[in-house]
Amino acid sequence: MPQSSIARAIMIFGVGLILMLGAATAWTLLRPAAQVSESKSSGEALIGGPFELVDQFGQPRNDADFLGGYMLIYFGYTYCPDVCPTSLGIMTQAIDQLEESDKAKAERITPVFITIDPERDKVENMKQYAEHFRPDMIAMTGSNDQIAKAAKAYRVYYAKAADDSSSDYLMDHSSIFYLMGPDGKYVKHFTHNDDANTIATALAELVQPE
Fold first, then answer.
1. Sign of CA dihedral 138, 139, 144, 150
2. What secondary structure letter does DSSP report for 131?
3. How far apart are CA 17 and CA 88, in angstroms?
4. Degrees (nearest 5) of the Cα angle 191, 114, 163?
5. Residue 117 is part of a domain; what is its CATH number?
6. Which long-range contacts (CB under 8 A, 24 or more apart) does 95-99 make?
7. What is the pTM of this model?
8. Most CB contacts within 10 A, which of 38, 106, 172, 179?
9. Distance of CA 156 to the CA centre of its chain
10. pLDDT for 58-73, tens place per residue?
11. What is the reported pLDDT for 94?
């Protein structure tokens, strides 16, 4: 092949390679921007949603009843020997502490306890249990399907620890507090490892006055 033809072929190959690299670079730079934009549009935590339950006084309750105020929600069960009473005690202490420093903010929070053991946690059980904590606590139960729907909305895991016919069974479950805003949307969560001071401090920052 003549030298001029070889040079022309090399030049054409070089130009093509440059164009390919340029296109690849542009695609790499633009793609993350699109991904970031998509992430921002769908970045809201998918926690919370509609529920229909019954409170400790036998009154029907749904998520719309709590709009306009904050909910601090915990899923557990009254037969729980340790984690649940400890967690609800921490919830109570945190709201009590906030009440001492900013009563108006504390009054905007409704402590909510939802059972994950509706087979044993009937209305009367829930009433007696809630009395050990704050007087404004709303303790709710319901049918198996209603509880399952509420737990799914809040991404809560629960299951019987042992599958037997005994009524003295334990429940495995996640142990998380969810702070939900006046619009019913997720604000923040805490675990049972967070102490009352930590939660009270966070609530003071996150809860907005009316």
1. positive
2. T
3. 65
4. 90
5. 3.40.30.10
6. 95/134, 95/200, 95/203, 96/134, 96/196, 97/196, 97/197, 97/200, 98/200, 98/203, 98/204, 98/207
7. 0.78
8. 106
9. 8
10. 999 999 999 999 999 9
11. 98
d(CA 73, CA 158): 15
pLDDT, one tens digit per residue, over 133-191 is: 999 999 999 999 999 999 999 999 999 987 656 778 999 999 999 999 999 999 999 99
How far the first Cα of the chain sits from its last, in Å, is: 84
Q: Which of 75, 54, 64 is nearest to 183 (CA)?
A: 64
Pair (26, 60) in one structural domain: no
With 0-12 / 13-18 / 19 or more C-beta atoms within 10 angstroms meaning exposed / middle / buried, residue 134 is buried
Q: How many structural domains is the chain composed of?
A: 2
Burial state string for 137-166 with b = 16 or more CB within 10 A and e = fewer than 16: bbbbbbeeebbebbbeebbbebeeeeeeee
Asked if 38 and 65 sit in the same domain, the reply is no
Q: Which of 96, 101, 70 is nearest to 196 (CA)?
A: 96
At 117, the amino acid letter reads D
Structure tokens, 30: 């633009």
36: domain range?
1-43
